[in-house]
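Here is the promised in-class demo. Please do not try to memorize the tokens; focus on the logic of going from shape to residues.
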């Protein structure tokens, strides 16, 4: 009897869940208030809507293309990694006006999680990559803003080329491998974090995986003898939003849909 009442109670909560309730839950789940990020990232609820949350669209980037995909998929909320407020205070005009007005007109809410999603120990982008590569003995790695934002761990011995191929198969996109040799230890920070390559070298890691880098990171990798794998900013940050979608489905029975719009970068 008690179990039946609990099921009914949870069902009623789901039926009545609006974006403020869901955002509060996500704030706690992702530790939004405690994790330091860019001042303009504005993690958390970025645009409110009205009514119950019936379907959530999951995307790496907030852009007009993913907005349109969310509308076509009949979503009334988006969960994204890169939100709409990166530019700081600015007039609501031009392309920004077009996106905001479309969201308001379609009653489409928006929630964004940047570093909190990269760093999450279960659902995060870095954890998904670590799991895909079967990284063991995980520990935090990569300091940014006084906090560790990545992961490091151990692999069964594999060549740099072999790890690049394995990663390509997991992500379904090209991987640039700089350097050669056997890899037993690896550091991971998703996205555009090639500037942390030096920290990987100082930690004595054989290799470092991130999304994208600049020309000088090639020379830094070769000269420090720390293999660098660049798997794409977009590609390395698809795992987190998908994990959150799976979580929402399992915990609340919500409908979700991944809104794929790869940049190739």
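The designed amino acids, position by position:
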């Amino acid at each position: 009897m008690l179990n039946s009442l609990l099921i009914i109670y949870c069902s009623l909560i789901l039926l009545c869940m609006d974006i403020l309730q869901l955002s509060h839950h996500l704030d706690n789940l992702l530790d939004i208030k405690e994790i330091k990020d860019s001042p303009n990232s504005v993690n958390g609820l970025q645009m409110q809507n009205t009514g119950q949350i019936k379907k959530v669209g999951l995307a790496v980037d907030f852009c007009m293309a993913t907005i349109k995909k969310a509308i076509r998929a009949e979503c009334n909320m988006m969960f994204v990694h890169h939100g709409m407020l990166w530019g700081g205070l600015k007039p609501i005009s031009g392309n920004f006006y077009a996106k905001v007005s479309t969201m308001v007109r379609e009653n489409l809410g928006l929630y964004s999680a940047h570093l909190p999603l990269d760093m999450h120990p279960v659902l995060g982008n870095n954890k998904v990559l670590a799991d895909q590569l079967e990284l063991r003995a995980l520990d935090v790695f990569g300091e940014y803003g006084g906090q560790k934002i990545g992961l490091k761990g151990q692999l069964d011995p594999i060549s740099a080329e072999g790890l690049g191929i394995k990663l390509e198969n997991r992500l379904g996109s090209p991987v640039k491998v700089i350097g050669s040799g056997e890899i037993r230890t690896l550091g991971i920070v998703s996205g555009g974090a090639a500037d942390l390559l030096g920290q990987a070298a100082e930690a004595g890691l054989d290799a470092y995986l991130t999304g994208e880098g600049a020309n000088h990171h090639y020379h830094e990798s070769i000269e420090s003898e720390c293999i660098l794998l660049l798997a794409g900013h977009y590609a390395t940050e698809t795992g987190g939003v998908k994990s959150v979608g799976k979580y929402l489905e399992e915990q609340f029975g919500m409908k979700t849909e991944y809104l794929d719009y790869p940049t190739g970068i």
